[in-house]
UniProtKB/TrEMBL annotation:
GO molecular function: hydrolase activity, acting on carbon-nitrogen (but not peptide) bonds
NodB homology domain segment(s): 66-175
InterPro entries (UniProt xref): Glyco_hydro/deAcase_b/a-brl, NODB_dom
Single GO BP term: carbohydrate metabolic process
Protein name: Polysaccharide deacetylase
Cross-referenced CDD domains: CE4_PuuE_like
A Pfam family: Polysacc_deac_1
Entry superkingdom: Bacteria
Species of provenance: Bordetella genomosp. 4
Length: 298
Protein backbone atom coordinates (compact mmCIF):
# COMPACT_ATOMS: atom_id res chain seq x y z
CA UNK A 1 0.00 0.00 0.00
CA UNK A 2 1.23 3.47 -0.88
CA UNK A 3 1.64 5.56 2.27
CA UNK A 4 2.47 9.23 2.59
CA UNK A 5 4.29 10.58 5.65
CA UNK A 6 1.83 11.01 8.52
CA UNK A 7 1.97 12.90 11.79
CA UNK A 8 0.64 9.99 13.85
CA UNK A 9 -1.41 12.23 16.11
CA UNK A 10 -4.91 11.11 15.05
CA UNK A 11 -6.53 8.89 12.43
CA UNK A 12 -9.19 9.67 9.90
CA UNK A 13 -12.76 10.08 11.21
CA UNK A 14 -15.73 11.28 9.14
CA UNK A 15 -17.73 13.83 11.11
CA UNK A 16 -20.96 12.15 9.94
CA UNK A 17 -20.00 8.84 11.59
CA UNK A 18 -19.19 9.89 15.14
CA UNK A 19 -21.14 9.57 18.40
CA UNK A 20 -23.76 12.27 18.88
CA UNK A 21 -23.89 14.49 21.93
CA UNK A 22 -25.09 17.97 22.86
CA UNK A 23 -23.68 20.97 24.64
CA UNK A 24 -25.19 22.08 27.98
CA UNK A 25 -28.99 22.54 27.99
CA UNK A 26 -29.27 20.59 24.75
CA UNK A 27 -27.57 23.26 22.67
CA UNK A 28 -25.92 22.21 19.43
CA UNK A 29 -23.51 24.94 18.33
CA UNK A 30 -20.75 26.10 20.68
CA UNK A 31 -19.21 29.46 19.80
CA UNK A 32 -16.21 31.19 21.29
CA UNK A 33 -14.75 34.61 20.52
CA UNK A 34 -10.93 34.46 20.49
CA UNK A 35 -9.12 37.78 20.85
CA UNK A 36 -5.41 37.67 20.01
CA UNK A 37 -3.44 40.07 22.21
CA UNK A 38 0.12 40.24 20.90
CA UNK A 39 3.34 42.20 21.28
CA UNK A 40 6.11 42.54 18.72
CA UNK A 41 9.76 43.50 18.52
CA UNK A 42 10.70 46.93 17.20
CA UNK A 43 12.99 46.78 14.20
CA UNK A 44 13.01 43.02 13.65
CA UNK A 45 11.28 39.70 13.94
CA UNK A 46 7.97 38.51 12.56
CA UNK A 47 4.69 40.39 12.65
CA UNK A 48 1.40 41.23 10.99
CA UNK A 49 1.69 43.97 8.36
CA UNK A 50 -0.87 46.12 6.53
CA UNK A 51 1.60 47.23 3.84
CA UNK A 52 5.06 46.30 2.61
CA UNK A 53 7.49 46.63 5.49
CA UNK A 54 10.11 49.34 5.19
CA UNK A 55 13.88 48.72 5.33
CA UNK A 56 15.46 49.54 8.65
CA UNK A 57 13.35 50.03 11.78
CA UNK A 58 9.82 50.10 10.40
CA UNK A 59 8.21 52.53 12.82
CA UNK A 60 4.90 52.76 11.00
CA UNK A 61 4.30 48.99 11.05
CA UNK A 62 5.37 48.68 14.69
CA UNK A 63 3.04 51.53 15.64
CA UNK A 64 0.16 50.01 13.65
CA UNK A 65 0.61 46.77 15.57
CA UNK A 66 0.90 48.68 18.83
CA UNK A 67 -2.43 50.38 18.14
CA UNK A 68 -3.98 47.05 19.08
CA UNK A 69 -2.68 47.28 22.64
CA UNK A 70 -3.17 51.02 23.08
CA UNK A 71 -6.64 51.33 21.53
CA UNK A 72 -8.04 48.25 19.79
CA UNK A 73 -8.07 45.89 22.75
CA UNK A 74 -10.04 48.37 24.84
CA UNK A 75 -12.64 48.78 22.10
CA UNK A 76 -12.98 45.01 21.94
CA UNK A 77 -13.46 44.76 25.70
CA UNK A 78 -16.22 47.35 25.40
CA UNK A 79 -17.87 45.34 22.63
CA UNK A 80 -17.81 42.11 24.63
CA UNK A 81 -19.29 43.97 27.59
CA UNK A 82 -22.05 45.45 25.40
CA UNK A 83 -22.89 41.97 24.14
CA UNK A 84 -22.61 40.47 27.64
CA UNK A 85 -20.51 37.80 25.97
CA UNK A 86 -17.64 35.74 27.38
CA UNK A 87 -14.38 35.57 25.46
CA UNK A 88 -11.01 33.91 25.49
CA UNK A 89 -7.79 35.83 24.98
CA UNK A 90 -4.71 34.41 23.26
CA UNK A 91 -1.99 36.33 25.06
CA UNK A 92 1.72 36.72 24.35
CA UNK A 93 3.41 36.77 27.76
CA UNK A 94 5.39 39.86 26.70
CA UNK A 95 2.11 41.69 27.31
CA UNK A 96 2.46 41.12 31.07
CA UNK A 97 5.64 43.23 31.06
CA UNK A 98 4.85 45.75 28.31
CA UNK A 99 1.26 46.68 29.12
CA UNK A 100 0.00 44.75 32.18
CA UNK A 101 -3.09 46.97 32.35
CA UNK A 102 -4.43 45.02 29.38
CA UNK A 103 -4.71 41.90 31.55
CA UNK A 104 -6.84 43.51 34.26
CA UNK A 105 -10.19 43.49 32.37
CA UNK A 106 -9.66 39.85 31.40
CA UNK A 107 -9.42 38.90 35.05
CA UNK A 108 -12.31 41.16 36.05
CA UNK A 109 -14.54 39.61 33.37
CA UNK A 110 -13.64 36.06 34.38
CA UNK A 111 -12.43 35.36 30.86
CA UNK A 112 -9.95 32.68 29.86
CA UNK A 113 -6.31 33.25 28.94
CA UNK A 114 -4.90 30.93 26.29
CA UNK A 115 -1.09 30.70 26.25
CA UNK A 116 0.18 32.19 22.98
CA UNK A 117 3.94 32.07 23.34
CA UNK A 118 6.14 34.97 24.39
CA UNK A 119 5.71 37.13 21.31
CA UNK A 120 4.48 36.86 17.75
CA UNK A 121 7.83 38.21 16.65
CA UNK A 122 9.03 34.58 16.79
CA UNK A 123 7.78 31.08 16.08
CA UNK A 124 9.16 27.91 17.60
CA UNK A 125 8.44 25.32 14.91
CA UNK A 126 12.11 24.73 14.03
CA UNK A 127 13.64 25.11 17.46
CA UNK A 128 15.55 22.40 19.28
CA UNK A 129 13.29 20.36 21.55
CA UNK A 130 14.95 21.62 24.74
CA UNK A 131 14.43 25.24 23.70
CA UNK A 132 10.79 24.68 22.81
CA UNK A 133 10.22 22.83 26.08
CA UNK A 134 11.64 25.78 27.99
CA UNK A 135 9.40 28.20 26.07
CA UNK A 136 6.23 26.20 26.75
CA UNK A 137 7.02 25.89 30.44
CA UNK A 138 8.14 29.51 30.85
CA UNK A 139 4.93 30.78 29.25
CA UNK A 140 2.87 28.55 31.53
CA UNK A 141 4.74 29.77 34.61
CA UNK A 142 4.53 33.44 33.61
CA UNK A 143 0.75 33.32 33.20
CA UNK A 144 0.36 31.34 36.41
CA UNK A 145 2.46 33.75 38.46
CA UNK A 146 0.51 36.79 37.24
CA UNK A 147 -3.02 35.37 37.30
CA UNK A 148 -2.92 32.68 39.96
CA UNK A 149 -3.84 29.88 37.59
CA UNK A 150 -2.00 28.03 34.87
CA UNK A 151 -3.38 28.19 31.33
CA UNK A 152 -5.02 25.02 30.09
CA UNK A 153 -4.94 25.91 26.40
CA UNK A 154 -2.11 26.73 24.00
CA UNK A 155 -1.84 28.26 20.57
CA UNK A 156 1.65 28.77 19.22
CA UNK A 157 2.73 32.09 17.73
CA UNK A 158 1.62 31.88 14.09
CA UNK A 159 0.07 28.50 15.00
CA UNK A 160 3.59 27.09 14.66
CA UNK A 161 4.45 23.55 15.74
CA UNK A 162 7.50 21.34 15.71
CA UNK A 163 7.27 17.58 15.42
CA UNK A 164 7.11 17.28 19.22
CA UNK A 165 4.95 20.26 20.23
CA UNK A 166 1.90 18.17 21.27
CA UNK A 167 4.18 15.95 23.37
CA UNK A 168 5.72 18.93 25.13
CA UNK A 169 2.35 20.56 25.75
CA UNK A 170 0.88 17.42 27.31
CA UNK A 171 3.96 16.93 29.47
CA UNK A 172 3.79 20.55 30.65
CA UNK A 173 0.22 20.06 31.87
CA UNK A 174 -1.77 21.70 29.09
CA UNK A 175 -5.18 20.18 28.39
CA UNK A 176 -5.78 21.33 24.81
CA UNK A 177 -4.14 23.10 21.90
CA UNK A 178 -5.52 25.17 19.02
CA UNK A 179 -2.92 24.82 16.26
CA UNK A 180 -4.59 22.17 14.07
CA UNK A 181 -7.57 23.70 12.19
CA UNK A 182 -8.76 20.41 10.73
CA UNK A 183 -12.19 19.82 12.25
CA UNK A 184 -15.41 21.40 13.49
CA UNK A 185 -15.40 19.21 16.61
CA UNK A 186 -12.74 18.81 19.30
CA UNK A 187 -10.77 15.60 18.83
CA UNK A 188 -8.15 13.72 20.81
CA UNK A 189 -4.52 13.82 19.70
CA UNK A 190 -2.05 11.14 20.73
CA UNK A 191 1.21 12.14 22.39
CA UNK A 192 4.11 10.06 23.68
CA UNK A 193 2.75 10.23 27.24
CA UNK A 194 -1.03 10.47 26.89
CA UNK A 195 -3.64 12.38 24.97
CA UNK A 196 -4.17 16.08 24.29
CA UNK A 197 -7.35 17.65 22.95
CA UNK A 198 -7.31 19.61 19.71
CA UNK A 199 -9.78 22.49 19.91
CA UNK A 200 -11.16 23.87 16.61
CA UNK A 201 -9.65 27.24 15.69
CA UNK A 202 -10.37 28.76 12.32
CA UNK A 203 -8.05 30.00 9.61
CA UNK A 204 -11.15 30.98 7.64
CA UNK A 205 -13.17 32.97 10.19
CA UNK A 206 -10.02 34.81 11.15
CA UNK A 207 -9.45 38.49 10.48
CA UNK A 208 -5.69 38.19 9.94
CA UNK A 209 -5.63 35.95 6.83
CA UNK A 210 -8.94 37.25 5.49
CA UNK A 211 -8.10 40.94 5.72
CA UNK A 212 -4.29 41.13 5.60
CA UNK A 213 -3.61 38.26 3.18
CA UNK A 214 -6.77 37.89 1.10
CA UNK A 215 -7.56 41.62 1.25
CA UNK A 216 -11.22 41.33 2.19
CA UNK A 217 -12.90 44.36 3.72
CA UNK A 218 -14.24 44.57 7.24
CA UNK A 219 -17.76 44.35 5.82
CA UNK A 220 -16.89 41.22 3.87
CA UNK A 221 -15.34 39.63 6.94
CA UNK A 222 -18.45 40.42 8.99
CA UNK A 223 -20.59 38.80 6.29
CA UNK A 224 -18.38 35.70 6.41
CA UNK A 225 -19.01 35.45 10.16
CA UNK A 226 -22.77 35.63 9.65
CA UNK A 227 -22.77 33.09 6.81
CA UNK A 228 -20.51 30.70 8.72
CA UNK A 229 -22.75 30.96 11.77
CA UNK A 230 -25.98 30.40 9.86
CA UNK A 231 -24.68 27.39 7.94
CA UNK A 232 -23.07 25.80 10.99
CA UNK A 233 -26.26 26.34 12.98
CA UNK A 234 -28.08 24.36 10.30
CA UNK A 235 -25.40 21.66 10.23
CA UNK A 236 -25.43 21.37 14.02
CA UNK A 237 -28.85 19.76 13.84
CA UNK A 238 -26.94 16.63 12.74
CA UNK A 239 -23.70 16.98 14.72
CA UNK A 240 -22.64 19.16 17.65
CA UNK A 241 -20.16 21.73 16.34
CA UNK A 242 -17.70 24.37 17.51
CA UNK A 243 -17.32 27.75 15.81
CA UNK A 244 -14.31 29.80 16.84
CA UNK A 245 -14.17 33.42 15.68
CA UNK A 246 -10.54 34.59 15.60
CA UNK A 247 -9.91 38.30 16.07
CA UNK A 248 -6.84 40.52 16.41
CA UNK A 249 -6.81 43.80 18.30
CA UNK A 250 -4.93 45.82 15.68
CA UNK A 251 -7.21 44.61 12.86
CA UNK A 252 -10.85 44.53 14.00
CA UNK A 253 -10.02 47.11 16.67
CA UNK A 254 -9.96 49.73 13.90
CA UNK A 255 -13.24 51.70 14.15
CA UNK A 256 -14.58 51.03 10.65
CA UNK A 257 -13.98 47.30 10.99
CA UNK A 258 -15.35 47.26 14.52
CA UNK A 259 -18.55 48.81 13.19
CA UNK A 260 -19.05 45.84 10.86
CA UNK A 261 -17.93 43.29 13.45
CA UNK A 262 -20.46 44.59 15.96
CA UNK A 263 -23.25 43.91 13.47
CA UNK A 264 -22.08 40.33 12.94
CA UNK A 265 -21.71 39.51 16.63
CA UNK A 266 -25.06 41.10 17.46
CA UNK A 267 -26.59 38.85 14.81
CA UNK A 268 -25.26 35.83 16.70
CA UNK A 269 -26.09 36.98 20.22
CA UNK A 270 -29.63 38.12 19.35
CA UNK A 271 -30.49 35.31 16.94
CA UNK A 272 -34.06 33.88 17.07
CA UNK A 273 -32.56 30.42 17.61
CA UNK A 274 -30.20 31.53 20.35
CA UNK A 275 -31.48 28.67 22.51
CA UNK A 276 -29.53 26.31 20.22
CA UNK A 277 -26.29 28.24 20.67
CA UNK A 278 -23.80 28.09 23.53
CA UNK A 279 -21.52 31.17 23.63
CA UNK A 280 -18.67 30.03 25.80
CA UNK A 281 -14.90 29.66 26.14
CA UNK A 282 -12.60 26.82 25.02
CA UNK A 283 -11.88 25.67 28.56
CA UNK A 284 -15.59 25.24 29.23
CA UNK A 285 -15.95 23.23 26.03
CA UNK A 286 -13.13 20.99 27.25
CA UNK A 287 -14.74 20.55 30.67
CA UNK A 288 -18.08 19.59 29.15
CA UNK A 289 -16.50 17.01 26.88
CA UNK A 290 -14.69 15.42 29.81
CA UNK A 291 -18.07 14.93 31.50
CA UNK A 292 -19.33 12.77 28.62
CA UNK A 293 -18.89 8.98 28.44
CA UNK A 294 -15.48 7.75 27.33
CA UNK A 295 -15.40 7.30 23.56
CA UNK A 296 -17.79 10.16 22.80
CA UNK A 297 -14.92 12.33 21.58
CA UNK A 298 -12.96 10.59 18.84
Amino acid sequence: MFELPHHGRYGYSAITRRPDYSWPQGRRLAIYFALNIEHFAYGGGLGHAMTNELPGPDARTFAWRDYGNRVGVWRMYDLFDELKAPACHLVNTAIFDYCPEVIEPIMARGDEIIAHGRTNAERQGQWWEADEKRLIEDVRDKISSHTGRAPRGWMGPWMSQSRVTPDLLQEAGYSFEMDWPGDDQPIWMQTRNGRLMSMPYSLEINDSPQILVRHHTGEEFATMIVHQFEEMLRQSERQPLVLGIALHTMIVGQPYRLYALRRALEHIVNHPQADKVWITRPGEIYDHLLSLPEGTVV
